[in-house]
Amino acid sequence: MVYESSLDAVRQLILVGENSGYVSWISDEDSTLMNGINSCLVEITCGSGAKLTINAYGDEALNLHCEVRKLMRTNH
After folding, report:
1. What is the pLDDT of residues 59-76, one digit of tens each?
2. CA-to-CA distance for 43 and 59, rounded, in angstroms?
3. pTM score, two decimals?
4. Domain of residue 28, residue span
């Protein structure tokens, strides 16, 4: 499956289909690589038990972290 962005991938994996899942882990908000670039890693556990990870870097990482936290609050 092809996704438009890391956030689109998370939303699709959480909200769509019979194997919809939940965020089982997310990196800290201030995670950065050694070169100073922001990084965000999100682990999704699907209904089938499969675990998938989604990575984002730079501005997309900051946006992904913020939006996934919002999704987590609304889904609990």
Report:
1. 999 999 999 998 888 765
2. 19
3. 0.83
4. 6-74
